[in-house]
Structure formats: C-alpha cells, structure tokens
Amino acid sequence: MKKFAISWIIILLLSPSLTHAQEITLHFPHFSGQQYDWKIFQGGKNLAVQSGKIPPDGWVALVMPEAYKAYRGMTRWMLKKGGGLDMIYTGKGFSVECLSEHPSSNNIIYKNNSENDYLSAQGNHQQTILKKLGAINHLLQVYSPEEVLHKTAIKEQESLRLQFEQTQADRSKSPLYAARFGEIVDFTRGVADKVYENQDDHVRYFNDFLTHTLNFMVLYTSGHWDQVLHSWLMMNISAEDGDAGFENRLDKVLKRITQNDVLNAFICKTVPFLVKKGKDDLLPGIVSHLDDHPNVRSKLPDKVKNILASVKIMTGKKAPDLMFKAPVRTQTVRSTKDITIETGKLDSDYTILLFYQGECPLCEDALIVLANRYKWLKKQNVRVIAISSDTSDQGFEKKLKYHQWPDNYCDFEGITGENFVNYGVLGVPTLFLLDQKGIILKKTAMVNEVLNALEVN
C-alpha cells in the first residue's frame, strides 16, 4: 500500500498561481482513496477546516471556509494513514503535483511560489554556513595554535560568522511570512541571530527576541506555539534578574499582543504555568491587564478563570496552619490521630515548607539540594517541613532517604488535600519560606531561590 513516509513533512508556501483565488489544488494520484484532514493552527490547538477522501484521479481541491477566510499562517494537509504537507496559507490559490508514489522535496512540483523559494534558499544558505562553521571548529580542536592551518581556520571562522550574521540580519528585514516563520523555527532549534561565545548571551538573545521582536500573530498560526512559549517561560523562571525581570518582560509581552484570540491563548498557557512554578506573585499583573480587556477575560476557559479567581497570593500574609487528617504517615510511623502544626508556633527563625511528590524528578532535585544544605540550615535555625502529595506508602517511602529532617508528612489525599488547597499549590515542587512569626516571605518552585533568600537575610 502506498503512503507518505511519516518521517517527512514538506513545507509549501501558498502564493498567487493559475488556480482560482483561495482554492488550493493538489494532485497526488498514487494516494487516491485515502482519507485526509486539512487543519489550521490557533495557538496550541489545531482545527480541521476540511476533511475528505482523495478521488480516484488524485485531484483534491482545498477551500478555506468562509469563517476562516482571514486566516494567514501554517496549515497541515494530513493523511489519516500518515504523512502529509505543511503549507503556509496567504489567502491565495496555488497548485501542487506529485506523480511519484514516494513524495519528497525533489518530486513535489509547484510554481510561482516566491515565499517557498525564499524559505528554501535562506534555509539552505544558513545551513551551509553552519555546516562549514562546524567543520572549522573541528579543525581548531585538532590543530594547535602554532600551526598554519589553525591560523587559516581562525580567519575562515571569523568570515563565516560574519556571513551568518548578515544572513540572519537580511531575513529580519524581509516582510514575508516565511521570514517570520523561519525565525520561529530557528528559536525551536536554538539558532540565534549570530554565533555567541557565551551561553548566557545566547539564552539572553532568545529571551529578548521573544520579549521585544517576535510576531505573536505569526507564532499563533505557526504550529510552534506551545514549544516556543514553554521555552520562554522556562528561561524566565531561572533568569538572573529574578521575578522583577520576569514581571517586566511579561508586562512588555502582554502589551505587545493586540489580538484578543492571541492574548487569550497566551494567558491560557501562562497562568497555569506560573502557578505550578510557584510564581503566583506575577499573576496580579495579568489580572490588571485583563481589566482593560473584558472580552478576553470573558472567553477564558473556566479552569483559568478559577485559577485567577481563587489562587492565593499569600506573600506577606500569615501562612495557614498545616492540618493532616488521620491516617498520617510521618518519617517513622503511621499515626492514627490528626496532626496540626501551627505556623505561628514553629520555634525557628525561618521555616521552609516543601510540597512535593515521590515520582517527581524535579522534587527529587529539590530534596537532594535541601539534604546537602541541611547542616547549614540547622545552624541558621531553619526548620524544614516536607508535605507529600503521594497517595500510597510506597510512593511516600521512595524519597525518605533524602529526609534528614524529622518533619515529613503525608495524608494520602494527593494534590487535592487540605494543605495543598489552602496554600494554592497546583504543581510540585512548590516551596514557601516563612519567617519566625509564620509570615510567608516567598513562594517559588526553585529551591535555590529559597536558599538565596536565606543567605541574604
């Protein structure tokens, strides 16, 4: 049976052609009888706008439905049995033909397609330079600085870096959708505007690119929405300038997004992420921005609305008492009595609350760091209390080896347990730093942020 190889997706870009306006004509005779979907991208979602079966003669006409006539972006023509085409739709008709039973970029034929020509030429030129740079870097590792070839390679490396930087700069000036799409693909591949010697500078470029330059409408229709935003959010969780820098960049991004649908998708992606990472303190800026966009707020899914309405921004407030209903598993026993820990009577200068789960790799990392620093913490009169969301003894016991502190508790109610709800914990690990009176000084998902705060204090 003939089918597209699942390993390849050919990118075609739609442009004016001899076909009727807005009608896309495909001719793939070797795939007649196969079912297909034609999809568009909207944020992290894809929506089928046309489905059908390839006729016996292999001709397929794709017409954008009236409701989506204004759509401009990546589309995907996908066979139900696997394989297909990714195509940038610009509102113009085009046609493409493949008479081979083994489609590839060499035997798919289309005409008058300036966007695709640009994307292909720019991409090939970029990759050629990068491959040459890779070869030069290898030479520099093999030959010593005293050898002639090493000195020649240094000059060639500098020339190639300048060529690469010029190639990227030229693309930034292009008005084509393909140019903006290429920038997004580069982001996913870690390809910057130039070659950076320092990894921190490399990361800083991508952070600044999304914050100040990236076209969010193009990202919304690119098919890379979730991947790009997740990468950007992760960059800012651990950024050198901390929450203040993250808040500033988040504010700039919110103000740059002018389309309601795009803003809605951005908030749907960002809000749950911030809460799970213990960054509740960044939510007021989002809430304030939504005050000026009531139409966006009204269309948010109930899950996000509930988070914004009920999440507890508790920094600066007294921490709720910890209450564990029997049966309660502790470090050494299974208690048949309820246990209550009053946060106003913790008898320590500071207290770290760690909400975690046994199967969570990031939780294990946090436990290891706390275990390694526990002697120092005891000297600073810091108490550690670990609250597990495990629902079985086996899950709880998996991490007991890290617990050098006596305060370890599990009530087997999971993440819906009373303490997780009272503290607004939606993801693990989440850490709270409390002062002597039980006032919350910090909430975060990063154990190093808590330790840094203690070192400052």
Q: Key features?
A:
457 residues, alpha+beta, Glutaredoxin, Immunoglobulin-like, 5-stranded mixed beta sheet
Outline the structure in words:
It is a single chain. By secondary structure, the chain is an alpha+beta fold. The protein has 3 domains: 9-112, Sandwich (Immunoglobulin-like), CATH 2.60.40; 117-310, no CATH class; 322-456, Glutaredoxin, CATH 3.40.30. It has helices spanning 114-142, 148-173, 177-189, 199-213, 216-220, 225-237, 242-256, 260-276, 283-291, 294-298, 302-310, 361-379, 393-397, 418-422, 447-456, and strands at residues 9-13, 23-27, 35-42, 45-53, 59-63, 73-79, 84-89, 94-97, 109-110, 322-324, 328-329, 334-335, 339-341, 350-356, 382-388, 407-410, 430-434, 440-444. The strands form 5 sheets. It has a 5-stranded mixed beta sheet. The chain has a 5-stranded mixed beta sheet with strand order 16-15-14-17-18, with helices on one face. Helix 12 (361-379) links the parallel strand 14 and strand 15 (382-388). The longest helix is centred in the N-terminal third of the chain and has 29 residues, at 114-142. The protein is globular and about 75 Å long.
In short:
With 457 residues, this protein is of the alpha+beta class.
> Approximately what portion of the residues adopt beta-strand conformation?
15-25%
The outline comes out as globular
Count of helical segments? Answer: 15
Number of domains: 3
Low-confidence parts: 1-10, 13-20
Major pleated sheet: 5 strands, mixed
Chain-averaged pLDDT: 91
Distance between the termini: 69 Å
How many β-strand stretches?
18
Q: What's the helical proportion of residues?
A: 40-55%
Indicate the structural class.
Answer: alpha+beta
CA-atom Rg in angstroms: 28 Å
Strand order of the largest sheet: 1-7-6-3-4
